[in-house]
Design brief:
Layout lengths: L14 E9 L3 H19 L4 E8 L6 E8 L2 H11 L3 H6 L4 E8 L8
Amino acid sequence: MSATGPDRRRRPGPRLTLSGFLLCRTLEEADRVAALLPEHTRLSRAEAGCLRFEVWRSHADPCRFAVTECFRDRAAFDAHQARSATTVWARATKGIPRDYVIGEEGEEGDQLP
């Protein structure tokens, strides 16, 4: 930990990334997602291993949300999944189709740019 807070630049292993889309089926469902996003985003970004957490609603298709996440390592991603599984977000978005790709980036001990 640095003097100003957790050192998020050093990684013990490869970063874990998630990217893709949350695909709501109706505008009402998409509006519910949009209403819950600020708190879900705030809580996710506050997690110690979260390096990036972004969700954007498409202007062309308001039922489609682009999602980009990056976590320090697999353990941080797993902790995020466990924390968010018990939230209002999880209950409200259960069953909404997701089209995500999960991968790893970087080598052990690499520095972020």
